Automatic annotation (TrEMBL):
It comes from the Bacteria. Catalyzes the condensation of (S)-aspartate-beta-semialdehyde [(S)-ASA] and pyruvate to 4-hydroxy-tetrahydrodipicolinate (HTPA). It is found in: Cytoplasm. Belongs to the DapA family. Homotetramer; dimer of dimers. Its EC number is 4.3.3.7. The active site is at residues 132, 160. The record marks 43, 106 as: Part of a proton relay during catalysis. The keyword Amino-acid biosynthesis applies. It is an enzyme of class 4 (lyase). This is 4-hydroxy-tetrahydrodipicolinate synthase. It catalyses: L-aspartate 4-semialdehyde + pyruvate = (2S,4S)-4-hydroxy-2,3,4,5-tetrahydrodipicolinate + H2O + H(+).
Amino acid sequence: MEGIFVPLVTPYTASGEVDAAALEKVARRCLEGGAAGLVALGTTGEAALLDGAERRTVLEVCRAVSIEHGTPLVAGAGAMGTADTIAQARERAPLADALLVVVPYYVRPSDEGVLDHFAAVCAAVDVPVLAYDVPYRTGKRLTAETALRLLSLDRVAGMKLCPGAIDQDTLALLAARTGKAVLCGDDAYVHPMLHLGAAGAIAASACLAPEAFAGMAEAVRTGDTARALALHNALLPMVDALFSEPSPAVLKAALAEVGLIGDPSVRAPLHPPRPEPVTRALSALHATRALV
Ligand SMILES: O=C(O)C1=N[C@H](C(=O)O)C[C@H](O)C1
């Protein structure tokens, strides 16, 4: 798994249903913009705020677009408990090339508990699993040592790392060169993480600027450091604006402004964003366009 994977928003119609046509449009646009693949039902897709039928619709739309483009589809899965996570993983695996399974949240299990959780999920499905480490959301932080033990599980193909920083554990994990993919999930750090050996990223901001993110990853890969840095510097203010309020509220408002989705709404308890970060994201987007 290499390159920029885009976790898609879930657009709604004015009457609040999943807007399959808008989702298809955003998905196609991301792949045409150079994304390596799509992620359905991630944090950005408000997966926790959809019902079962809606999650199925999202997966089916993303599956169809991925097949059309010959690119991989990653599906988010994960609950607080192991049994519920396995049920979700079994349901979604047939429609996905890999599963993005979040570290069990809220209950704060021990490291051994986390490892057993992933071993049980891996044993229940026959697709690769990406472990999703996002301690500011889950309440459970993984050390590099535990992350390396996780990566040593056969079916674990890699990790999406979202520690909110490039910390000692991140550096140790990347330095270990396990051969498994480390994907950056902190949009602001994609550029330095690629230089440090990350295989790619799962970045919500790439929904709005797929060309710039894909171009940055390609520039790092080909050694065009000046171009990679220019794109990183241009993207940073956009990322800052997009994450200045709980995601994906600003992102959806910006996508609506550029006409990619019809309705910017997010589901409760998320709130619509203030206008200021949306304007800021759009003017930063404009600056990135000059570089792609
Ligand atoms: O949708 C996702 O998955 C993402 N998760 C990160 C988060 O937890 O906020 C951010 C990333 O850009 C996309």
